[in-house]
Amino acid sequence: MSSSTAQIGVTGLAVMGSNLARNFARNGFTVAVHNRTAAKTTALVQEFGHEGTFVAAESAKEFVDALERPRRLIIMVKAGEPTDAVIREFAPLLEPGDVIIDGGNAHFEDTRRREKELREQGLHFVGVGISGGEEGALLGPSIMPGGSEESYASLGPLLEKISAKAADGTPCTSHVGPDGAGHFVKMVHNGIEYADMQLIAEAYHLLREVAGYSPAKIAETFRSWNKGRLDSYLIEITAEVLAHTDAATGLPYVDVVADAAEQKGTGRWTVQIALDLGVPVSGIAEAVFARAVSGHADLRSAARGLAGPKAAPLSAEAADAFAAQVEQALYASKIVSYTQGFHQIQAGSEEYGWGIDLGAVASLWRGGCIIRAAFLDRIRAAYDARPELPSLLADAGFAEEIGAAQEDWREALVAAVRQGIPVPAFAASLAYYDALRAERLPAALTQGQRDFFGAHTYRRTDREGSYHTLWSGDRSEVRTA
């Protein structure tokens, strides 16, 4: 075996790791490949060796020796302890300046810990969010790398070569920020993905139960929407799923799939971290909870006989008018989902000192990833024009569109409530929007209650400082700070 010839190495050759290794090889890089089970390494080279130059390594030392310096080593194993175990195996074999890259769905706090520990050993650690699934890993994913600027100088050109390219040819990758920034942004990407999928599912539910459309008809509707402002990967595949017929039964595919959606945890992390940061991501949270509700079969079975309206499909003419309202509701709620996600990235960047460029994040999501959508170009432009933009809803273009959607958005929700169709993400998105635009919120009463039972104090609208009312006595007010 030739030594020190591979420009990049991949250890962990399940489907994602194998496809990533093949992507590098297809793009002209010599790739060292390694797996705990050597048979997988052999199988990869035998089956795909014609795609490029691979260097198969059986042992960890052999693998490290095959890499040119500074060594770039990508770990593609299960997140958590398995990743730590691989790091413990390889770190002692590396030299200062070498780069370990974690391409799994790691929690960003784990990435921050690993980066600090390896930095103290003179090694670079890069947490890389990779979106696009198995196909993206092979053909070009959206890649979100964190870590030091020095590590990106070494790794970046390779990632830019293998990443997806936006319509204007820009690589869908860039240096996101220090330590855990890349995995944080990938986490929020997945949270937005959960919301996007739930909103689409709710639109389908309304079209099915209220408009009375068949799955095939809804597929046609989504295809037409995909030609306009809702143009996106998720709308595209939704039409494909809805148009599919089950071969075994001849029924619409969507009618033979159990209505229980699973999750791997990144959406849940998004909500948990948003709570820690104090960032409202209610639309994303409802999408996560909707999956949780769907999985509680016994709970749903016990409640199925509860009182409530039954949906009554509209006439054909009214149904088409209602479908237009649902499109407005879907688009307006989608804007809210991205608003919440970008707000969380902004808050995380401030909390951890990452200096994340929100326009650049929108840019690297324009291709390869699951939430790729035409309107990400507009989000990028909005943040490029105003890097200090406090919210996407403060952008004139988005504000105008969501304003135009008002009546239809609300009418779609009214129809859902009247006919007993659950639309938690639609409803949470509208509530978030109304909360932001409200002159005053009932939080004043909430804070008064907190002061009454816990002396938690409150601020006043007419003067500075914190105050507490002596509720048990003459109810006089005391300034506390």
Task: Provide a descriptive summary of the structure in words.
This protein is of the alpha/beta class and 481 residues long. It has 21 helices and 10 strands. The chain has helices at 15-26, 38-48, 60-65, 81-90, 108-119, 133-139, 149-162, 181-209, 215-225, 233-243, 253-256, 266-277, 282-295, 297-303, 316-352, 358-364, 376-385, 396-404, 406-418, 424-437, 443-454; strands spanning 8-11, 31-34, 54-56, 72-75, 99-102, 124-131, 142-145, 458-459, 466-469, 477-479. The strands form 2 sheets. Strands 3-2-1-4-5-6-7 form a 7-stranded mixed sheet, sandwiched between helices. Helix 5 links the parallel strand 5 (99-102) and strand 6 (124-131). The mean pLDDT is 95.
**Secondary structure: helix percent:** 40-55%
* Uncertain segments: none
Biggest pleated-sheet summary:
7 strands, mixed
Task: Label the structural class.
Answer: alpha/beta
Strand line-up in the sheet with most strands: 3-2-1-4-5-6-7
Integer average pLDDT? 95
User: Count of helices?
Assistant: 21
Using the CA coordinates, give the radius of gyration: 25 Å
* β-strand number: 10
Our measurement of the CA-to-CA distance between the termini, rounded to an integer number of angstroms, reads 72 Å
Strand percentage: 5-15%
Shape: globular
